[in-house]
Amino acid sequence: MIDDRLWSAVGDPIRRRMLDLLLADGGGTATTLSARLPVTRQAVAKHLGVLDRVGLVHSTSAGRERRYEVDEGQLSRAVAQFSAVSATWDARLERIKRIAEQIQRREQG
Predict the structure, then answer these.
(1) What is the pTM of this model?
(2) Which domains, from first to last, does the chain contain?
(3) pLDDT tens digits, residue range 26-51?
(4) Is the separation of the CB atoms in 93 and 85 below 8 Å?
C-alpha cells in the first residue's frame, strides 16, 4: 500500500537533501541544516515538521533547539515502498516495449 503523505514528503528536493544531511551527519538541528541549505532556518523547521509527521525523522531536546535524526525503520519502509513501485513501473514499461516491438514487426513485415 502506497503512503501518499510519505511520497509527498520526500517529493520535495529540499527535504530529500535534509534527509541526506541528517543521515551523513548522524542528525542535526534546524540551525545546522539551514547553514547548509539555500533556505531559511524557519523554512527548514517547517520541512522538518513535515518529515516528522510522516515519521521519517524524530527529535529530542538539545538545549534551546531540537535535534533531529532519521528514523531508519521508517526510511527502510519508505525505500521498500519506492522499490515496489519501481518494480511495478519497470514491468509496465517492459510490456509497453514488447507491444511496440510487435507493432513495429507487423508494420515492417
Answers:
(1) 0.76
(2) 4-108 (1.10.10.10)
(3) 999 999 999 999 999 999 999 999 99
(4) no
